[in-house]
Amino acid sequence: MYAGVYLLFKTNDNLSPVRFVSVKYALLNLPFILFTALYPESFYKSILEACSTNLNDAFLKYTVVQSIAFVSLILGIYTYSRFTRNSIKEPDSFKILYNYKNIKRLGLSLLVVAISGYSFFIIRIGGFGYLFTHLHNRVELQSGQYYLIALNFLYFVPLFLMLCIKLKNKVSDKVLLILSIVLISFIFSSFGARKNTLILLILVVVSYHYTLKKITFKGVNKTFLLIAVVALSLYILAIPIVRRKDALAKIESKEINYEKALSVKTLLYNVSYTFIDVFAANYFNEENAWHLKGLSDPVKVFLFKGDKSEAPPVDQGVYFWNIVKYKKDFSPSIPRGKMHKNSWPIENFGFGYANFLLPGVIVAFYLQGLIFALVYGFLKKEVVNPALQFMYVFVVFNFNFSNLRLSQLAATLPIALVCYVLFYIVTNHKKSNRLL
Fold first, then answer.
1. Are the C-beta atoms of residues 330 and 322 closer than 8 Å to each other?
2. Least confident residue range of 80-89, 203-212, 306-315
């Protein structure tokens, strides 16, 4: 189905929303489903037990709901795109509109601001040594450190440098671009997280496509792609190992079961949310659906002044994990102190089905498709704008209607807006308008 949709929608842009999400869903869902079909014993039995079902019935129901969800998403994209047919635009007066020195200064300034915030954090907690030996408590370490929001500026640094390369094509800028990607990846990874680095790399690819050279499948270096996939797979598997409690001691004493930690199953369960969607599709019914209970929980948590353990979790995936773990019903807004802190992010599928079952999935995915197409429409009007490139990647990979993702959007949107305004200020829009 994903391949059919990809080929059906004819477009000159391989990163248009329909093609982008088709590739995304194919990569995240199909390998997991194929692996489970080949090795059915690999699927979490705890999920089947919590849902009182068997593997075949569970995947049959999931497949039906997921297919309807994907069609709803595509319809949302198509609905908006149908009424806003505009092609990708790059300014005719490109080198007049964009000032090389100003853009480079802005990019480097954002890097300095972000590194300053990161350095302050490192000093405040007691140094790198403390950070690397307490990655298992990374959430607690970052709690209340609101200045760390400045780290979001790091996403924009490579994008500004890529724009500099388009303007001047200097070797020094190319070297600086590579160094910045390595440095930013290290900073993100030092928090024991993987998604930020992966989003950064996707963002670099998207920016390369729109700023420097269009990416086509025929033009992709197959050897480089294979090396990149292997390297990213090892990275995804390695981060959970190093963030374990007493990770260094366990590595040195060979306590870690590398055969399990580096297995295909572990990789798939780390990159795919399919198993979570299977749970949602088979657990919820008319009797236990949430009906938007907990919708205001992020606001309650933000305003909560007492013991945080008495506040509900912002991430509703905590309820999912505890349901499967303890085989009993948990729902918003149970205080986080009464549950284990582990989470299975519910994403758009889990949000829609947990709240309103199949109708909820249809509406949630249709609206998500509209948002994807809306942001893509803004991007097409100024395709080299780093802020718009960032927002496009952010919504495709991180936006849905769950409390966690909406909270992340609320925290990220001001950063993108600041970068958009700064980018507009340092470019010669007024001068260009007079010339045009």
1. yes
2. 80-89
